[in-house]
Design a protein that fits this description.
The structure holds three protein chains of three kinds. Chain A is mostly helical. Chain A has helices at residues 2-26, 31-34, 41-51, 57-69, 83-118, 123-137, 140-154, 179-185, 189-226, 229-236, 241-268, 272-278, 283-292, 296-324. Chain A is globular. In chain C, helix 5 (126-138) packs across helix 6 (142-155) and helix 8 runs parallel beside helix 9. Classes of the chains: A mainly alpha, B mainly alpha, C alpha/beta.
Chain lengths: 330, 304, 281
């Protein structure tokens, strides 16, 4: 298990290096963002120097690494603030949305998968498979748009894509950054309701994408479990159906756990498209902005965050396996 | 004595069972096992994809209206004569959807093909020759895997600039690690099998054993994975199009069409974004169905 | 080639006549998934004498396992019965409803399968699995069930049962796991124990141990045992009666001694010759 932890280091190093070089070598010239349009060559040269762009690439790389080790992720060209603080500011939005979407995915996906496995090759199975196929095959941004069209434009029962709160509504005092939590802590129920309403459509959109693969993997692994020898033994011992399903499910959940781990990584690194559709001020939108503005400091910071997140997720999954599957402890 | 079919506790039995999960009870059904949905799905998938191919080819010769023809009636609802309606610039959505098939299909096929071939070769080498090559390749792959894929694709495509060839290469590059892993795993698991040993004993040179003997046996799961991978590539292509990264503006692509129609959603013109999305669903869905069908066919555990 | 339908094992016993515990009468059927629906079991008829060990002998495809699974009605769902009955305690098992069957499985008729380690749930402790069976059929409390599990492990001579009851199946060797399976099968004191190739795949010395264990348990508690095997050596060691099957038919039945020393059927003779038991008494 400790070898797993050690692997973060070289992988993170590789990630940082690649991001750095890709960002620097390929991105457009950000000087344009800082120098006024009519600047002459001398002014531009000054701007470049102040941005540190005049030094050779290798020097820039080492400066970057040095800064990183001091916890300095650089300064964003577009916001003018530290990338680190930018990310920290935006993380709660992504995490809040991601958590709810994940919960939806698990709470709906797993039971659907179980039902599909138990009623294999019959109508419930067929319906679950079609439904989860939609979750995987449909682009998330399209789902978001269609949901908006239905619930906001046509029926008017849910608010539009203006972000976490309706326009001109101030947020609660920040404790955790999660609006649902902070508004409750401030005792402001109407604010809580407004935040919740804003969350409904984006989390449904994101959740639908999450539950597709989860239901699918649950079904497949539950089918395998139901066909296994130990289930046959349980039947031979006269166990009732719910017991047998539980015996099977406990085993079937292991591959599902891996899938959930991957999903978490995707959700928490800010599903860019969903954030774009709903105007969600999260980490993903930040990354998109960074790409479009060639803001490579921001981009590097984001990619590092995402990569570390993925590695941490896989690590947690490994640890959970250790806790749940006795065979891994052998 | 009337024939009876028994099943136990609604549980599918191992070895030779028909996957029948009939509810228990004094059931006296003589029902035969229903055909697995996988076979039907496979056929639907293939049929749909063939349809897309046909549409793409036809689009070179004929579309109801000029897909780039600006200036027609603006924002007309679907119906006659504009089957899918028109967009803000007066272009026929149906024609544009048809033409976009070309690009999305081409990019998907090309990048998946490239990734498949290169990834499989590299993976076979890694899996067969082991040790140094294997280690080096795997470490590199793990590093790349730590990136969130969409963002990585976005990053590189926006860096290298728009163009269909660029997209193909980038997506192939992003998809390659998966094939590599799969091929490597398959080859490694079969490396010590009898027939490989036999081939070596007979005097086949290493690379021959790797490519001629081991690889064909690993094709099954590889193909099944390819279909799923293609679906993912199609989605990423559409996503890139939606974000405006990738193809030149104006070129019809389902993702960018959806983006164009976005504002229309708020004002009630749903059709500009709706139909391209359905087109994506059709293609991606049929690829997944194809993948399921192939997976069932090649999975040794699923007895037919 | 016809089955010896008139054979009544009880008549050969020196003790007072006892009703056979289970009688299979002209049982037959086919698999609905096969193209030609050819019968896989044809007119199977034999009975299991109370308190005795009956061996069902046959090679792969003889239908011996399928018939055994039918006793518990856990045969593959694609199996279609076309004829016959399986009488246990006067009732046709094939006609009972699921609820009644569940009451019989594990409590009155138990089954042990070939690959014990695969047959046990890998993520629950052995003790939990055995205790679950106890609680199901006997309604014991958690603690009582745990004690019963420990006692069951002790019965099958697993050393240090208090510690082993908390272990997982993968921590047991093949032979030990088979003992665990037998413990689980016997914990509710069934009347009939069916063992489907319990020793196949185990080392020879372990095989002997398991067979000795089964014999001991059977004799001690008047347990009826149905031992399915293809190994005539095992049959010779332990069994009172033998039933020889081939390709879905019963070829002959009789006491062990009869079948092994004076086989009536040609196939049985071939089996004997191949197993090199010919010189044994």
């Amino acid at each position: 298990m400790f070898t797993r932890l050690l692997w973060i280091v070289p992988v993170a190093a590789g990630v940082m290096t690649i991001t750095f070089f890709v960002g620097r070598v390929f991105s457009g010239d950000p000087t344009n963002l800082y120098a006024p349009p009519q600047a002459d060559a001398a002014l531009r040269a000054k701007v470049r120097a102040s941005l540190g762009l005049d030094k050779p690439l290798i020097n820039q790389y080492f400066t970057y690494l040095k800064d990183l080790l001091h916890g300095n992720l650089g300064t964003s060209f577009t916001t003018g603030r530290g990338v680190g603080s930018d990310l920290l500011e935006r993380m709660p939005a992504t995490l809040e949305l991601g958590t709810i979407a994940l919960a939806l995915g698990i709470v709906i996906g797993i039971p659907l998968g179980v039902v599909a496995a138990v009623k294999r090759d019959r109508w419930p199975d067929f319906m679950v498979r079609v439904f989860s196929l939609g979750g995987m095959a449909l682009p998330a941004f399209w789902v978001g748009l269609i949901l908006l069209w239905l619930f906001f434009v046509s029926w008017g029962i849910l608010p539009g894509p203006v972000g976490r709160l309706p326009v001109n509504v101030p947020g609660p005092p920040t404790v955790t950054g999660f609006l649902l939590v902070d508004s409750l802590l401030a005792g402001n129920l109407s604010l809580w309701w407004q935040a919740a309403r804003q969350l409904i459509l984006p989390s449904l959109t994101l959740g639908y994408g999450a539950l597709g693969p989860i239901a699918r993997v649950t079904r497949a692994s539950m089918v395998d479990a139901l066909e296994s020898e130990y289930v046959r033994t349980a039947v031979a011992m006269g166990h009732r159906r719910p017991t047998i399903w539980w015996y099977a499910l406990r085993n079937a959940l292991l591959p599902v756990l891996t899938m959930i781990g991957t999903t978490v990584g995707y959700l928490f690194s800010g599903a860019v498209l969903v954030e774009a559709v709903f105007g969600w001020p999260g980490v993903g939108a930040y990354a998109l902005q960074a790409i479009q503005n060639s803001d490579f400091a921001a981009l590097q910071g984001f990619v590092l965050y995402a990569a570390v997140l993925f590695v941490v997720c896989y690590l947690i999954v490994d640890l959970l396996y250790l806790a749940i599957d006795p065979r891994t402890r052998a | 004595m009337t024939p009876t079919t028994r099943s136990a506790a609604g549980v599918a039995e191992p070895s030779g069972s028909g996957g029948d999960t009939a509810t228990p009870g004094p059931v006296a059904k003589t029902r035969r096992r229903p055909p697995p949905a996988g076979a039907l799905g496979f056929r639907i998938g293939v049929g749909l994809l063939a349809g897309y191919l046909v549409v793409a080819i036809i689009s070179y010769f004929w579309t109801p209206f000029d897909p780039l023809g600006v200036g027609g009636d603006v924002l007309v609802k679907p119906g006659t004569p504009y089957l899918f309606g028109t967009d803000r610039l007066g272009e026929d959505v149906f024609s544009r959807t048809m033409v976009a098939t070309r690009y999305d299909l081409a990019i998907t096929v090309a990048s998946v093909g490239l990734a498949l071939v290169l990834g499989t070769i590299l993976g076979t080498i890694g899996g067969y020759y082991g040790k140094f090559w294997d280690g080096a390749i795997m470490r590199a792959i793990e590093t790349f895997n730590a990136f969130p894929t969409l963002l990585f694709a976005m990053l590189i495509v926006s860096a290298v600039g728009p163009g269909i060839l660029n997209i193909i290469v980038v997506l192939a590059f992003v998809g390659l690690p998966s094939y590599l892993r799969l091929a490597r795993a398959e080859v490694m698991s079969r490396k010590t099998w009898q027939f490989a040993e036999a081939a070596r004993m007979v005097g086949c040179r290493s690379w021959r054993v790797a490519f001629r003997h081991l690889l064909p046996n690993s094709i099954g799961p590889l193909l099944a994975f390819t279909a799923v991978n293609a679906a993912w590539v199609a989605l990423i292509t559409a996503s890139l199009g939606y974000l405006g990264i990738g193809l030149q503006p104006g070129v019809p692509e389902w993702g960018s069409m959806i983006a164009n129609g976005q504002d229309g959603i708020i004002t009630g013109q749903w059709w500009v974004s709706f139909f391209p999305g359905m087109a994506i669903l059709g293609m991606t869905g049929s690829l997944y169905l194809l993948g399921d069908g192939l997976g069932d066919r090649f999975d040794p555990r699923r007895r037919r | 080639m016809s089955a010896d339908t008139a054979f009544d094992p009880a008549a050969r016993h020196s003790s007072p006549v006892r009703e056979p515990i289970l009688e299979i009468d002209n049982y037959g059927g086919y698999f609905s998934t096969s193209a030609d629906q050819a019968p896989v079991l044809k007119g199977i008829t034999y009975s299991l004498a109370r308190g005795a060990i009956t061996a069902i002998v046959g090679e792969t495809g003889s239908g011996k396992s399928l018939t055994a699974l039918s006793m518990l009605q856990i045969q593959p769902a694609s199996f279609v019965r076309t004829s016959g009955r399986i009488l246990f305690d006067g009732q046709d098992l094939a006609e009972l409803d699921e609820r009644t069957l569940r009451g019989i499985r594990g409590a009155r008729i138990s089954m042990v399968f070939q690959d014990a380690r695969a047959a046990l749930n890998p993520i629950f402790t052995v003790g939990r699995q055995i205790a679950d069976v106890c609680r199901l059929h006997q309604g014991l409390s958690r603690n009582d069930a745990k004690d019963a599990a420990i006692a069951a492990l002790r019965l099958v001579h697993i050393p240090d049962p208090e510690r082993r009851v908390r272990q997982y199946p993968h921590e047991f060797s093949g032979g030990m796991a088979q003992r665990v399976m037998i413990a689980m099968a016997l914990v509710c004191k069934p009347e009939l124990l069916i063992l489907d190739e319990p020793t196949t795949g185990l080392d020879v010395t372990i095989q002997a141990e398991i067979i000795a264990l089964i014999t001991e348990l059977c004799r001690e508690s008047d347990l009826t045992t149905c031992l399915i095997t293809h190994d005539l050596g095992v049959v010779a060691e332990t069994c009172d009666y033998a039933v020889v099957m081939r390709r879905g038919e019963v070829l002959e039945t009789g006491t062990c001694e009869q079948v092994l020393t004076a086989p009536r059927h040609e196939y049985t003779q071939q089996l004997l010759a191949a197993s090199r038991l010919v010189d044994d008494a």
